[in-house]
Amino acid sequence: MIDCAGLSDRMVAVAHGVSVWEPGEQAHLHACRDCADEWRLVQAGGGLAHDTVIDTERILVRLHERLRTPVPQLRPASRPLRQVAMVAMAASIALLFLVPTVRRATNVAVVVPAVVVLPELERLNEHQLEAVLTELDGGNDVLSPMRLPRMGDLTVQQLELVLHELGG
């Protein structure tokens, strides 16, 4: 099978006559529409440069003219305008320090629901999540760190659940 990217890389060399298509590549160009379209584009682009004449003298003359033409200088802002801008800046700085800031009332209680993000729970299936919820249903509103049970600490029902989840 012919690699389209490799064929694309060879198209310029073939268009300039430095290389020729092998029979397998030729067959691929007839079978692959994308490669055929790209080959037609490369061939059309190769013919553009033959009729192009670059007038280097004209370019050189225009370049020298532009280099000799002085660049217009921007005139500095007039003195009164500069003074007005400085007064405006000073006033804005004074406002920052002189205007009292608005303070929030400190006796407002904000209730934020507790959200616990446990990425470990993302991969658990329904049975495993139910087992975790069953363990957490101790009536405790605050999640405390759970100690991991050892194999000897598990009940028969919990061991069967582990075996069932592991596919045994």
Based on CA inertia axes, which overall geometry fits?
flat
Percent range of helical residues: 40-55%
Overall average residue pLDDT: 76
Give me the strand/helix succession.
HHHHHHH
Give the percentage of residues in beta strands: under 5%
Q: What structural class do you assign from the helix and strand content?
A: mainly alpha
Termini gap: 46 Å
- What's the total number of strands? 0
Can you describe what's shown?
By secondary structure, the chain is mostly helical. It contains 7 helices and no strands. It has helices at residues 4-15, 23-31, 33-48, 56-68, 79-98, 126-136, 156-165.
Secondary structure topology:
Blueprint lengths: L3 H12 L7 H9 L1 H16 L7 H13 L10 H20 L27 H11 L19 H10 L3
